[in-house]
């Protein structure tokens, strides 16, 4: 079992939601933190709260779609703390819409998902994760660090109507742990650097609060626990995944028993 005390976590998207909850949880257990977000004010606020609570913490305003930003982030971790033990590339967005919307009266297509709405989600949720993981894993290898890369997929990976962009990126997050684990295994590194993904259902963060509320009500009717998942519940799973080194390579669901209907 790995210890959290003094272990170094790099968390993107830590200005809000699950990333923020993960940062606070890590700090409360004596871990050290390297925080990143594109939203400067939120990021600084979280950094201050963590420092006030007595934990060691640095932050970097970072756009995960920019290669130089992710390189600087990973380097900051090792320059400051000489290790990277946990990587949570959690920066993410949604831009929901249908691929094609036919007009009710004419039956002809009146609206399409804009390329920019598809591309933006891919850039942040997929390319941003690729860059963050590549740069942080490089530092983990070069510093001889031991730990976990934990990606964040979603129940949306199974295919949610109105989310062709988001669902596609989350399906990729479910595949990446196997690719990364296989490559590390081939190079004799998989015993000290593990990679997993978690697949949450609907978690009560800004992302979900900003969703179409009617759609959200419909979704909650299919959740046996009858409520949104708390960010802290997701973080509790991440902690177990970090500490328990028998957990590797897989996708771990946390969704309150969500029943996905046949019409998504
Ligand atoms: N909330 C859910 O129900 C849910 C479910 C499954 C998976 N997830 C995933 O969890 C992750 C975190 O989501 P959340 O619910 O905490 O959302 P959130 O909106 O609360 O937090 C996302 C954070 O990412 C940051 N961000 C956005 N673009 C960025 C960029 N280019 N560079 C750096 N930071 C950027 C935002 O500023 C924000 O602070 C996302 O990957 C999301 O897809 C969320």
What this model shows, in words?
- The protein has 264 residues and is an alpha/beta fold.
- The protein has one domain (8-253): Rossmann fold (3-Layer(aba) Sandwich), CATH 3.40.50.
- 44% of the residues lie in helices and 17% in strands.
- The chain contains eight helices and nine strands.
- β7 (147-152), α5 (164-186) and β8 (193-200) form a beta-alpha-beta unit.
- α1 (17-28) packs across α8 (231-243).
- It is globular and about 65 Å long.
- The chain starts with 7 loop residues before the first strand and ends in a 10-residue tail after the last strand.
- 42% of the residues are buried.
- The structure holds nicotinamide-adenine-dinucleotide.
- Residues 12-13, 15-19, 37-39, 42, 62-65, 90-93, 124-125, 128, 152, 154, 200, 202-203, 205-208 line the site of nicotinamide-adenine-dinucleotide.
- The site of nicotinamide-adenine-dinucleotide has 31 residues, from α1, α4 and α6.
How far do the termini sit from each other?
Answer: 39 Å
Strand content: 15-25%
Count of extended strands = 9
What would the CATH topology be?
Rossmann fold
Structural class: alpha/beta
In this entry the ligands are: nicotinamide-adenine-dinucleotide
Uncertain segments: none
Number of domains: 1
Global morphology: globular
Mean pLDDT over the full residue set: 96
Radius of gyration: 19 Å
Keywords:
264 residues; alpha/beta; Rossmann fold; seven-stranded parallel sheet; two-stranded antiparallel sheet; 8 helices; 44% helix; binds nicotinamide-adenine-dinucleotide
Short description:
Helices cover 44% and strands 17% of the residues.
């Amino acid at each position: 079992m790995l210890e959290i005390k003094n272990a170094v976590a790099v968390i993107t998207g830590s200005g809000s939601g699950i990333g923020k909850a993960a940062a606070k949880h890590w700090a409360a257990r004596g871990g050290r933190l390297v925080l990143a977000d594109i939203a400067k004010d939120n990021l600084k606020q979280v950094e201050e709260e963590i420092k006030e609570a007595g934990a060691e913490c640095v932050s970097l305003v970072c756009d995960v779609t920019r290669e130089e930003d992710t390189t600087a982030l990973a380097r900051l971790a090792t320059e400051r703390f000489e290790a990277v033990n946990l990587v949570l590339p959690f920066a993410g967005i949604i831009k929901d819409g249908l691929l094609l919307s036919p007009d009710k009266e004419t039956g002809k297509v009146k609206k399409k998902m804009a390329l920019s709405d598809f591309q933006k989600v891919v850039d942040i949720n997929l390319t941003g994760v690729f860059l963050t993981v590549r740069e942080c894993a490089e530092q983990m290898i070069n510093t001889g660090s031991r730990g976990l890369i934990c990606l964040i997929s979603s129940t949306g990976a199974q295919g949610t109507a109105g989310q062709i962009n988001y669902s596609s990126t989350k399906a990729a997050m479910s595949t990446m742990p196997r690719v990364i684990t296989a490559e590390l295994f081939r190079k004799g590194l998989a015993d000290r650097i593990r990679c997993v993904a978690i697949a949450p259902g609907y978690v009560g963060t800004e992302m979900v609060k900003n969703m179409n509320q009617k759609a959200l009500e419909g979704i909650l009717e299919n959740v046996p626990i009858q409520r949104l998942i708390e960010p802290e519940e997701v973080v509790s799973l991440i902690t177990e995944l970090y500490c328990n080194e028998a957990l590797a390579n897989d996708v771990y669901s946390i969704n309150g028993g969500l029943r996905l209907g046949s019409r998504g």
